[in-house]
Amino acid sequence: MTAVTNLPPAGIGGCTDAPVRFERGQREVFCGLTGIIWLHRKIQDAFFLVVGSRTCAHLIQSAAGVMIFAEPRFATAILEERDLAGMADANDELDRVVGRLLERRPDIKLLFLVGSCPSEVIKLDLGRAAQRLSREFSPRVRVLNYSGSGIETTFTQGEDACLAAMVPELPATEERSLLVVGALADIVEDQFRRIFDQLGIGPVHFLPPRSSRDLPAVGPETRYLLAQPFLADTGKALDDRGCQRLAAPFPLGVEGTMGWLEAAASAWGVTADRFAEATRAPRERAEMALARYRDGLAGKRIFFFPDSQLEIPLARFLAREMGMQLVEVGTPYMHRQHLAHELAMLPSGTALSEGQDVEKQLDRAIEARPDMIVCGLGLANPLEAEGLTTKWSIELLFSPIQGFEQAADLAELFTRPFNRRARLMV
Ligand code: SF4
Fold first, then answer.
1. Cβ atoms of residues 335 and 234 within 8 Å
2. From the CA of 389, how far away is ligand 1's center (Å)?
3. 30 CA to middle of ligand 1, Å?
4. Which amino acids bring their CB within 6 angstroms of ligand 1?
5. All residues at 6 or more sequence positions from 334 whose CB lies less than 8 Å from its CB, including other chains
6. Domains and CATH numbers, the chain
7. Which residue in 33, 64, 98, 152 has the most C-beta neighbors within 10 A?
8. What integer pLDDT is reported at residue 6 of this predicted model?
9. What DSSP designation does 35 have?
């Protein structure tokens, strides 16, 4: 029996050292406040209080939809003209708003003060405000802060900033454990937990946790697996706590999920036989389910605008497992270490771009006329009007797409726009 080894899989060329087109121009992306939409569902006793403008409130409200069954766990403390002009003490106002909120909502155990462009422009120090309010309301409520501002960030960085803000709060431990980092749907977490159990890997914790009372403990014996490719700051904060990242591809598609699990199996010395046994059934199910979508996607040309930072793992999955051709893979930011396995698995010669100059990129996309463009909401309609088929990248954050059982759902998400266009053409 041999132990599982976690080497980057043989690529079909690989793009580890491939040239990357860097662009610094106008960008078309949502801001980090967007992350509140999935984070507030995940941490069930947390509340996100955006300190921002009416624009921020509209963004969150329209992105989250109207919740009619439950009291919302996010809101905006709107900075009025008097605050922006420095005529009122915004800190006093904030303390009043938070006091009222916590009095009315005893279910809140973790409160995030979320900074925005306006709070940054008037240099409202939310870090100090969070400390002050934490002192006042602890131990009942812990108050943390992070920025979701759209100045120089992209929308998934909101989750990164939120999780990075939690890392200093995690208790210390010397115990060996596995930490899965990045918000996953509960159903996906449960599936992964079952596989880790079968592999004898544990204890396994997740960040963010479902309850703020279950913050995972970390220390030098913690090995962590990133479940999302946009967690640069969180990874660094965990490294600073002495934790060690397990290098792996991201768990998208069968191959990505196998590589991701292998990284943990290798660190825990799981034998190759045990690994094959534990993964055989879900892997085979996923392979069969994926086969249904391959004919519809194989050979189709796809172009990624930089938006979610999921682009490179998605491109790897679509090229290698679904046979799609990559015209251009744009990403807002490329963390070469975190993406090392992914880059090694991309077809050689893949055109990669980092950052954005939206006009130039639109010209390239329209000229290339790919079969599908993955982009943000703001670009989709103009591109559809050009007769191009688009996929909203934000949907990939709202849908469970990681792991074996979700591999076919991921492929289906890319099939749907073709079906929709085919129906429109009838
Ligand atoms: S944080 Fe900035 S970019 Fe985001 S909604 Fe508010 S003003 Fe707009």
1. no
2. 28
3. 8
4. 31, 33, 52-53, 55-56, 59, 116-117, 148-150
5. 20, 312, 352, 354
6. 20-27+291-425 (3.40.50.1980), 32-153 (3.40.50.1980), 177-272 (3.40.50.1980)
7. 33
8. 56
9. G
- The Å distance, Cα 169 to ligand 1 centre, comes to 27
- Closest C-alpha among 382, 410, 243, 190 to residue 317: 410
Token pair recorded at residue 401: 């797409």
Q: Per DSSP, which regions of 214-359 are E strands?
A: 222-226, 244-245, 301-304, 325-331, 352-356
Give the residue, by CA position, lying nearest to ligand 1 atom 5: 56
Instruction: Point out the residues of the chain with pLDDT beneath 50.
Output: 1, 7, 10-12
CA atoms within 13 A on the CB side of 93: 17
Compute the distance from residue 254 Cα to the ligand 1 centre, in Å: 37
312 contacts: CB under 8 Å, gap ≥ 6: 229, 329, 331, 334, 339, 342, 343, 346, 352
Rounded Cα distance, 19 and 243, in Å? 32
pLDDT of residue 12: 47
Determine the Cα–Cα distance for residues 388 and 386; give it in Å rounded to an integer. Answer: 6
Placement of tokens 């980057």 in the chain: 8
| Residue located nearest, by CA, to atom 2 of ligand 1 | 117
Cα separation, 394 vs 269, in Å, equals 37
- Which mutation among 30, 56, 84 tests ligand 1's pocket best, with the greatest number of atoms within 8 A of CB? 56
Residue with tokens 């497992």: 321
Q: What is the pLDDT of residue 87?
A: 61
Residue 224 region by backbone torsions, left for phi larger than 0, else alpha for psi between -120 and 50, else beta: beta
Dist CA 320 CA 159 (whole Å) = 28
